[in-house]
Design goal:
heterodimer; A: mainly alpha; globular; B: alpha/beta; Rossmann fold; 2 domains; six-stranded mixed beta sheet; 20 strands; 38% helix
């Protein structure tokens, strides 16, 4: 077997194991919280007898590990259970919300990732000169400001003053792609500003690190232009660290955007999760946790595998 | 001089030096150097480290590493002044009119790209040939440089070929755009002798066939004598002597040149082995990890008290592994290590302090073998405290004695390693080893990183100390000249086995086994036509077989 295939399979297996561990943690986490589903449904004033009956009816009196495996089995078959607060099927509600979250994250990613890498390249090209400093100053400013503040500032400028984009990013399935894009313009802009600095700085650092190598001098002595040299000779050797930081930021775009969703009243996963945490809707919290964990682990796994693939020593063994 | 390709006049190169704890100051790296190179000729630039030879070589591309400034004089290439030329002009001549072959091809190739792409990159970038023409030329060059499978060689990645092949590929890369001038910067220094000779022959053939001019930079006079038409000797950024190869080698005018030529001429008569060996390595086999190949297989050698056993071999022959086994860093899989007839515990952690004391080590890289934040006195004083419990005055006095023994005067005790030269650092390491009053010192390539004259001084010091203190050496090296200078007995190692072992006079005298013959005949000799002679002889033997 090609050694790289072996490594990739190993990583995949490790990722699955990690996901399993995460599911255990999520289940345990929701179990050790005070109160359970029966309590949540019947409220504070419920009698002991009523609680016992309720638990027996819902199967909550069975041992935790049995309930865990039942939950896991159902989740693997696409059945995430029913929300306690409104009795709806969780998978259906999440499906809609997840689509929205992924749409916003994708728009932000499509803008921010190429922009961050390009800015990183430019910063290296003009290292320690004004373009580098300007890029650093701007990106560091935007990362230092709280997201909600950025959100409100952009909203004031682009929605209130200029009137280019709506201030409330309400989207639904009847809208066309362009209408949706227009609706998420502002939150996507904020998210871009938030994740840009991290990716840009990492790109810059990773490439600068490679720029010390002797083969960069070789390329320079071939008479190559500086930007060609950076893109052709430095970049391919800096892929691993860059991909890692890109993936961490993509994960953040999916699972960490609660504040932005609230500011722009965007119907995404974050808001859905927060709503149901406050209602102590345990099945929903578990389902969201599992989905977020899957996305996080999946993206990091991708980063790992891309890093491995970017290494010519592994790709082409002796 | 209508045919002058490169003319350097009164070149001055400066750099800003940032020494720790001092204000940045200006240092003159190269001062008042002039040379003229005709088309198709090869000039050797020779000197020790710090002589400014690489700096001058790169100046021919109007390039300065780091903070180096080409601050004065003229560099005229193809009739055009290139010092201070604009970035666009420089880009158009680099990789087209002048190309560069670096010392470490392993570092100079981009690990993420196939060799072919890199070899023809400059040619395509400057629009000199079409892709297919450039590839055809590269394949031709691979063939000229006797690379294996020239047709498919370019499809490999740098890590898939050996060091010697990579160095030849780098030469192909430099020659591909048909430049007027190639700068060879120590292209064979990092290679084993047996590989060096092949690369050297390949470079020489390629230069002859393409008619390119070259600046050949090296610290090894014997090497440069094989490829150059003329030689310039440099020292501390200044010209010492300039002449034809013949004149420099046969009738050097300057003392410094004479010293360079007579280097490694220490005459050391071997001593007779004593009846009781100090260290006996008995049928030792060792490997790294539990599975895999033996790095040492069934090795047996002896070191006699007050004598030197030289372990010779190429990289990967198991020399350093032997040192690790003897010191207990790598317990052997089979066999035993006897010290004065008693078996030493195989693992370091089971050895007594006394057993540790009697066996000391000196390393190749003196730089990294010392704590940079300790003074010389602290470095040398530590074993005195650890093994003998010396403190205060007694310790200081002993430190001073040791400093005297390594010929470093007063005042060195307060210095930090960064304030010492390469040779001085190695001397401090010797003093640290001596401080333990060992019976045996393992010297692992202790002179390989040093300039020839400095290395000579170290070898003389080691011989002198052996005479006075009666210490035995296990001397690991790849350099036959060093072996001649210091050894009483020799073990030639090849692929983890002892190929040939005995007193120096026997080992270095014919009849040889094939490997020892190859090894000995590959060592460059300081005479004209040596390279051709060796290659001719080898062709004849292989034709005879």
């Amino acid at each position: 077997m090609h050694p790289i295939l072996k490594v990739v399979i190993q990583r995949l297996a490790l990722g699955l194991l990690l996901l399993l561990a995460a599911s255990v943690l999520i289940f345990i986490g929701t179990q050790i919280l005070p109160g359970d589903v029966a309590q949540a449904i019947l409220g504070q004033g419920a009698t002991e007898q009523a609680l016992t009956n309720m638990r027996a009816e819902m199967g909550l009196d069975r041992p935790a590990y049995i309930r865990y495996f039942e939950w896991l089995y159902n989740a693997l078959h696409g059945d995430l259970g029913v929300a306690l607060s409104n009795g709806r099927d969780i998978a259906d509600s999440i499906g809609q919300r997840m689509g929205n979250t992924l749409f916003l994250a994708s728009v932000a990613a499509v803008i921010s990732v190429p922009l961050a890498i390009l800015l990183g390249l430019v910063a290296v090209r003009y290292r320690d000169r004004w373009p580098d400093r300007l890029i650093s100053a701007i990106t560091l400013t935007t990362i230092s400001l709280p997201e909600f503040l950025l959100g409100y500032v952009l909203m004031y400028i682009f929605a209130v003053k200029l009137g280019w984009f709506p201030s409330v990013s309400n989207i639904n399935s009847s809208m066309s792609f362009w209408q949706k894009l227009n609706a998420v313009a502002l939150p996507a802009m904020v998210l871009t500003l938030v994740v840009l600095a991290h990716m840009m700085r990492m790109t810059r650092a990773a490439i600068l690190n490679v720029m010390q190598s002797a083969y960069i001098e070789t390329a320079e002595l071939k008479g190559l232009r500086r930007l060609t040299l950076i893109a052709r000779h430095a970049m391919p050797n800096a892929i691993a660290p860059i991909v890692n930081v890109v993936m961490i930021n993509l994960a953040y775009l999916v699972v960490g955007v609660v504040v932005i969703e609230v500011v722009f009243v965007y119907p995404g996963m974050g808001q859905y999760l927060v709503d149901h945490v406050s209602k102590r809707d345990v099945p929903v919290v578990q389902a969201c946790g599992l989905i977020f964990a899957t996305i996080y682990i999946g993206l990091n796994l991708t980063a790992d595998i891309v890093s491995i693939l970017s290494n010519p020593r592994l790709r082409h063994p002796k | 001089m209508a045919d002058t390709l490169l003319e350097i006049k009164n070149l001055r190169i400066e750099a800003t030096v940032y020494a720790p704890g001092e204000k940045p100051r200006n240092a003159v790296i190269v001062d008042d150097v002039s040379l003229a190179l005709e088309r198709g000729k090869v000039m050797g630039l020779i000197g020790e480290s710090g002589a400014g030879k690489s700096t001058i070589g790169l100046a021919a591309l109007a390039y300065g590493r780091g903070g180096i400034r080409l601050s004065g004089g003229e560099i005229v290439l193809n009739g055009r002044q290139i010092r201070g030329a604009g970035a666009g002009t420089l880009r158009s001549l680099r990789g087209r009119e002048v190309t560069y072959v670096a010392q470490s091809a392993a570092a100079a190739f981009n690990p993420a790209k196939r060799l072919m792409e890199q070899v023809i990159e400059a040619t395509l970038h400057h629009g000199l040939m079409s892709q297919s023409e450039a590839e055809a030329r590269a394949v031709d060059l691979f063939r000229t440089l006797s690379l294996p499978d020239p047709e498919s060689f370019g499809r490999r990645y740098p890590h898939q070929v050996s060091g010697g092949q990579l160095q030849r590929a780098m030469t192909a890369m430099a020659l591909c755009p048909k430049p007027d001038l190639v700068i060879f910067d120590e292209p064979t220094t990092a290679l084993d002798v047996t590989t060096q000779i092949d690369v050297l022959a390949a470079i020489k053939t390629a230069i002859a066939e393409t008619g390119v001019a070259a600046l050949y930079i090296t610290h090894d006079l014997a090497v440069v004598a094989q490829v150059s038409d003329e030689i310039m000797v440099l020292r501390q950024g200044k010209m010492v002597e300039h002449g034809t190869v013949q004149q420099i080698i046969e009738a050097p005018r300057e003392d410094y040149t004479k010293a360079l030529i007579s280097v490694r001429s220490i005459d050391h008569k071997e001593k007779l082995p004593s009846p009781a060996p100090l260290l006996t390595v008995q049928n030792v086999s060792a490997r790294y990890g539990l599975i895999g190949k033996d790095v040492l297989s069934d090795v047996s050698v002896e070191v006699h008290p007050g004598q030197t056993l030289a372990l010779v071999g190429e990289s990967g022959s198991g020399k350093s592994t032997m040192a690790r086994v003897i010191t207990g860093l790598l317990p052997p899989r089979k066999g035993e290590i006897l010290f004065e007839g008693k078996a030493l515990p195989p693992a370091l952690k089971n050895r007594s302090r006394e057993e540790l004391r009697e066996l000391q080590m000196i390393y190749q890289m003196a730089d990294v073998a010392m704590n940079p934040r300790q003074t010389v006195a602290a470095i040398i004083g530590r074993p005195l405290e650890f093994y003998f419990g010396l403190r205060g005055k007694a310790r200081d006095q002993r430190v001073q004695e040791l400093l005297d023994a390594i010929e470093l005067g007063k005042g060195f005790g307060d210095r930090y390693p960064a304030e010492l030269s390469g040779g001085q650092k190695q001397r401090v390491c010797i003093a640290r080893a001596l401080a333990a009053k060992p019976k045996l010192i393992i010297c692992d390539e202790v002179t390989s990183a040093l300039d020839p004259l400095v290395a000579d001084g170290i070898l003389k010091l080691l011989l002198d100390l052996q005479k006075r203190e009666g210490v035995a050496y296990l001397f690991i090296t790849h350099d036959i000249a060093t072996v001649r200078a210091i050894a009483d007995s020799i073990a030639v190692m090849y692929q983890g086995r002892v190929q040939r072992y005995g007193p120096k006079s026997d080992v270095l005298a014919p009849p040889f086994d094939d490997y020892t013959d190859l090894l000995l005949s590959s060592v460059p000799e300081m005479k004209l036509g040596w390279l051709e002679h060796v290659i001719e002889t080898r062709k004849m033997t292989s034709a005879g077989n």
